[in-house]
Target: Family 2 glycosyl transferase
Amino acid sequence: MLFTVNALCRGTGKGYVSICTDMDPGKLRAEAVKDDGTVFPCPIYRFGFPGEDSTASRQWGETAGDRPYSFVVVVPLFEGIDLTVRLALRESGETLATIPFGHIATRIRSRLTYRLRPETAASMRDIDQRRLSGGTYVYITGIYPVEEHEVSCRFTVRYPVLQDSEAKAPCKIAVYDGSATPIQVTPCILEDSVITDPHDAHQRIRQIVAAIHLSDTPRTLCICATPEHGNGNFTCIPASSFSGFFTGALDLTKHVFNDEGYSVWFEQHRATFADIDNQRQICATWDNTPLISIVTVVYNTPVPYLHALIDSLKAQSYAHFEVVFVNVSNDDGTVERELESINDKRFRIVHAENKSIADNTNAGIVQTKGDYIAFVDHDDVIEPDTLYQYMCVLRDHPHSDVLYCDEDLMDESGHYWKPIFKPAFNPDLLNVNNYITHMLMVSRHVLEQVELSPSDVAGAQDYDLTMKCAEQAREIHNVSKMLYHWRMHRNSTSTNPDSKPYAQEAGRIALTRHYERIGVDATVHDSELPFRYRTEYHWNQPPKVSIVVPTKDHVDVLSKCLERVLHATNYPNFDVTLVENNSEDPRTFEYYRDIEQDDARVHVVTWKGTGFNYSAICNYGASQCDGELILFLNNDTEAINEDWLTSMVGFFARPEVGVVGAKLLFHDDLVQHGGIWASMDHCGYFGELLSYKDGGYMETMRYPWNCAAVTGACQMIRRSLFTKIGGLDEQLAVVLNDVDLCLKARQEGYLVVFNPQAKLYHNEHTSRGRDEQDVHKELRAINEQARFYAKWDSSLHRGEFINPNLNQYDGHFKLKW
Model:
């Protein structure tokens, strides 16, 4: 039995050995052995294809010569480690040949192959990437930050399943570092399913998606997988690829606030001199030109800052405005002289005693004459088309009573960065912090209906006024343009929250009074971040929640779900309805009997339908319970925090809230669901694959906000609303029924709330697998998607939850170029 090494080359993390032999490679298995006896499975790949013409097979690298067979063995590359490649009979394990694979010798031989035989090297290298089907295959899909200095490395193992017993047979997974030393980690299995082979609908593949937690130090990493039935394989990446995966994850999840390219985008999108000239001509054609009053409180403003502000105001393309400067400075008169030198009748100076910033602002408001009143801080600047853009929105929406725009930070060198592109009016986001901030403009119509801010909310007087006006406003609009620049300096809260320590408490008081005015019993708490608050809602009698859990077999999964619901939930008033649908495993029915006997809060009902129709199953379950609130909960979820249900119920203390969802995590602590965005022909999750600790854009992964929809895996809705909108659409049996339910609720005027305080693990695809991996399920999903988008596309408003300057098809809030 002869084996001859024909060629050798090294690739990225893998080495390739071309061997000629007179033995059928199908009868062989290969492995690499370290000097301490550690064994690594190595795949074998034939150059040609079955039954192929010998001339044609040579184009793939077939060079057997006088021997009938040639093949490639793929070997892991470690750091300075010598290996021995061992070829053995597949059945008996008898060793037939050993081939040295030293790290120095293979480097030399690889260079010679690339230099002298480049076509041979090309045919060998990455052959494992080109011949994926038919055998075991292991590949890394991403390396994502989880904790400080800790990452989740995700990988997938695929191999053919020829018998049912192989679908659940053990698959050994081992992980090694650059010295080929085992890393003691336990893989977290995220998915384990049998899917249809994408190349052959009659063949099946077992797919295991797993993750391991490692330090974030770049390293060589080798992951080996060996099924109980069949040959093993590995993937091996060097430190540079480890860094590449990690950097790629950061780029994937990086939002616009941290985008280094923002300044280029802004240069391309801000108004030019020509734009301003054109805008002035347009304004001249307008019959209705309301007066806009700008109120600015001036206190010892550095002269350069004051000059910059005045220049930005004078440059406005919309000219019908007035500026009311409230000068409360106590300097040597420098500020007063600068203000008096303004040669423009539109600028007026009001002298006032320096009291609180709230009182000082009010002193300016009462002096205004305009139809609209805007507020600009004394050390900031606005774009020259700011008032023009506000007027354009007002012309389209004349009943607008509260307007605001996008803003960024301007550092002391004049560099614009850290932009905030804001959503349309978002009540729950406003209940967390004053995301509206700049440039607030309110109509006199609404201002006359509210009380001005008292001195005890000084430092948050804009927050107080915003909420008061929002409560009475006919319409609220975001002017989706980057128009306001918040200057960074040591006395500004833009960079130094401690510069105004009183503002934190002022904001809490303002939000508390907002709840008092609207009749909601709630306590406002400070949170872990400055100027952001958490609301604790109160009930005289906590409403009953009926938790509806569709379930079929998978008792091991269901029992984990119910263990957390029944024994690790602090909400006092709930019951559980298990909706049995077509189970076959006798253990399932034994579990039903036991759980009903053990806990009076649980009862089992049986859906009589056939097949799988999530909407019909949930509708039936809802009809069999009586809770004022209904929570649809997947059987493959596990609650993490005991107040998860309490926090969800709380939002229903506000009558305008219709649906509430939770933050769902994969078991490797990456975000699966952070709310749902919906655009034309596509929906997706916000915050997917962020660390569970990452607050996300505008901290929407840490605090509640309103979004288009929330997933049905954990979706709470008022029973009265559920009945009114006809429940779940049973024509959407599997996909987008949860989004459809939320859109129907919003159509009735209700809010959908994503609540990240409720955290659960979700073992998605455990019960049914992925629709796209089964041709029949995929076809059904495509048809239902078409139905959904035909129904809703015309109603999905661009920019409502993702600012129109951002990519409407990305849940990580990225710039739209």
